[in-house]
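dumping this here before i forget
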Amino acid sequence: MSSPKKDYYGILGIEKDADDSAIKKAYYKLAQKWHPDKNKNNKEAESKFKEISEAYGILSNAEKRQKYDQFGLCDGEAPDFSQGFHDLSEIFGAMGMEGMGGMGGFPFGGMGHSFGGMGARGPKPKPIQEVRVKLKVNDIFHGLSKNIDITVHDKCGTCNGSGSKTKSKNICTGCKGSGIRVIVRQVGPGMISQQQTVCGDCGGKGTFIEPSNKCGACYGRGTVETKLNKTLEISKNFDHETVMLLKNSGNYDSDTDTKADINIKFVIFDIDKYNMEIKNSYDLVMIYPINIYDAMTGYSMYWEAHPDRNKYNFKFNDIIKDGDIKFIKGLGLPMNNNGTIKRGKLYIKFKYIYPSNILNSDDYKTFIKTKDSKVVENKDTWIKEKVYDIKDDISNNHHKQHINGDEEGELPGCTQS
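structure:
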């Protein structure tokens, strides 16, 4: 039969509404006190450390904490310590507390290897090379075949990626091949701090090549620059947030003896040409100038500047104020929603055009007479779309600022044709 639920909040000495920061600080304080590296051959300390680590493991995980608060957790579900204890620097490094308290490290001598080598790292993840490809907004709607050249650092064939003429390297004497140096400093009587840093002699590689032994083809780098030519098929109504994957086609990684996967991402670069901005990935926002008389007397807008090349008719039956925002559903950028193509919204922000001279009653009468006399060819072929007010879409100023705000970002590119 399971034992009663443990009081993890009590174990860490915190309230049940404690936030993540409070949980971390409580664990940090208790871990320093009870860590076995500081309490040699102390069974009580070992038991206490297991207990606080168990509590932190549950309360620092949002999903586990929710289940614990709702259903409780019985003894027997504690984490496994059979492989030893984490080095304190590893524990607090994972918590983002490497320099907490201005201590310059963790003042416990001989840490890291007393309890079973928990500092061992897993296999290096497969490298990813990211490439950004520029698209015109017209390309999004109408599709095209796009030819690109991607710069790739390929494995040197002369030295087989080793960087050396003899295809061998020397072990770094500074770090003895580990790529890491351990710096130990005394921070007080009987107290030291232990920190790890990348070896400056070999740059963390653990090996080096004598200048006379460097490969002449790649100058010791192990890679040579090449161009990968690809033709990308951009379909009609293309989702520009799509990421295309080219497996095992990118830069050569000598540590894993593999080629990186290439992630191709897309950026629309000419949206300014249409006096528009892209918001929320798929919504289009444009500033539309309107004279005051049109704004005050009802306005029928005939618009043929959309990048999809269709002609649209929007009817505004209410007074339009300077700065008003209206929107039309389905006239934004295409998005792929589980295989179904949908489109974002088009937001129109109106900006008054003020008359250059004071207007009199005759000017107004002339305007009314000529208001609907503008010749629009083939009116029946223009696509009529329903217009919505911004209050029908958003309910607070935060979202309205999203439409008015600016978003900028720098995007690396590649050679394209």
